[in-house]
Design brief:
- The chain starts with a strand and ends in a 6-residue tail after the last helix.
- It contains 8 helices and 15 strands.
- A hairpin with a 2-residue loop joins strand 14 and strand 15.
- It has a single domain, classed as 2-Layer Sandwich (D-Amino Acid Oxidase, Chain A, domain 2).
- Helices cover about 25% and strands about 25% of the residues.
- Pfam families: DAO.
- Keywords: FAD, Flavoprotein, Oxidoreductase, Peroxisome.
Length: about 350
């Protein structure tokens, strides 16, 4: 079979995972072309800012749930067998307050908050927390073994695995998705297929301009204090678009305290008042962070803001011809970019193979 030339646009977790899985198959010459690469910190580039973890909010029976399900195995394997990837196991406690029922956060987390979620048979050690183990104000809770990902290690690790398989990386900015096939990015003159993993920028990229993609602003505080466990709660008393969660990243990556889910908000600057609320909520939720003391005993590394690429209707994984070239889309995972990454990439690779398979002779 003749080699097929493919350009992946975007080097976030979606683009890198898709490039990696495709590079494991014979017959593809792959270039990853992107404005932002691992090591960059930019408001357009969501992946470095993520927590990141495996905490499914996808609804039972949906494609999204299947993509999440398919991603647990690879992440578990990385945590067990590949310490250089920056992924480790961590106990995850999910707290539910009945007063949050019907709020934006509780609705978003509905499956996660369920005492009987679809993923209880996927993740290890799932169980309902006894009442005496719950913090004040929490009505119910579950616990399971999850993973937390140090994005500063994991994204470069994905690049390194792609490089081992011959993938080429290039900086490039495209005004139109078809330019990835025509602007000489690929060393071969002919590009057979483009994979669109442009995340939030899919709303502005010519040929795509998907207006159903909007930012959901997240703000975090990274601290040196060890949380000891991952925690997520159904809501806060500080407003519907604020959330309470924490996780300690692998390999010295610090503890992430969050957060918020502000849809339609493009603001890249840290809100200092929100930062204080995030820290107060975290210390109340998990007093072990500061040994029972106040937020002045948090050892702050930095503050961060990221924009989750949320698509109304969920992640887009589809193929279409644009200006005569096949394009496979894989974007719009919102806050589920890491925990659905392998499932989404597998689905995208399947579409690549469908688009490029030789047609049988009649």
């Amino acid at each position: 079979m003749a080699q097929k030339n493919v350009v992946v646009v975007g080097a976030g977790v979606a683009g890198l995972t898709t490039a990696l899985l495709l590079s494991r198959k014979p017959g593809y010459n792959i270039v990853v072309a992107a404005k932002h690469m691992p090591g960059d910190y930019d408001i357009e580039y969501a992946s470095p800012w993520a927590g990141a973890n495996y905490m499914p909010v996808s609804i039972r029976g949906t494609d999204a749930a299947e993509w999440d399900r398919a991603t647990w195995g690879p992440l578990e394997d990385l945590a067990q067998n590949h310490p250089d990837a920056g992924v480790h196991f961590q106990e995850c406690e999910i707290y539910s307050r009945s007063k949050d029922l019907g709020t934006a956060t509780a609705t978003w987390f509905a499956e996660l908050l369920s005492p009987n979620p679809w993923f209880k048979d996927v993740v290890p050690n799932f169980r309902v927390l006894p009442r005496k183990a719950l913090p004040p104000g929490v009505d119910s809770g579950t616990v399971f073994t999850s993973v937390c990902i140090n994005t500063a290690i994991y994204l470069p690790w994905l690049v390194s695995q792609c490089l081992k398989n011959g993938v080429i990386f290039k900086r490039a900015v495209f005004k139109h998705i078809s330019h990835a096939a025509s602007q000489g990015v690929h060393p071969s003159k002919k590009v057979d297929l483009v994979i669109n993993c442009t995340g939030l920028m899919a709303c502005k990229l010519g040929g795509v301009e998907d207006k159903s993609v909007v930012p959901a602003r997240g703000q975090i505080v990274v601290v040196r204090n060890d949380a000891g466990k991952m925690i997520d709660i159904s809501g806060t008393d500080d407003g519907e678009d604020e959330a309470g969660y924490m996780m300690t990243r692998a390999a010295g990556g610090g503890t992430i305290l969050g957060g918020c889910y502000q849809k339609g908000n493009w603001d890249s600057q840290v809100d200092p008042n929100l930062a204080v609320r995030i820290m107060k909520r975290a210390v109340e939720l998990n007093p072990a962070l500061t040994g029972g003391k106040g937020i002045e005993h948090l050892d702050i590394v930095r503050h961060g803001v990221g924009l989750r690429p949320v698509r109304e209707g969920g992640t887009r994984i589809e193929k279409e011809k644009i200006d005569g070239t096949w394009v496979v889309h894989n974007y719009g995972a919102g806050g589920a970019g890491y925990q659905s990454s392998y499932g989404c990439a597998e689905a995208a690779v399947k579409l690549v193979e469908e688009a490029l398979q030789p047609r049988p002779r009649l």
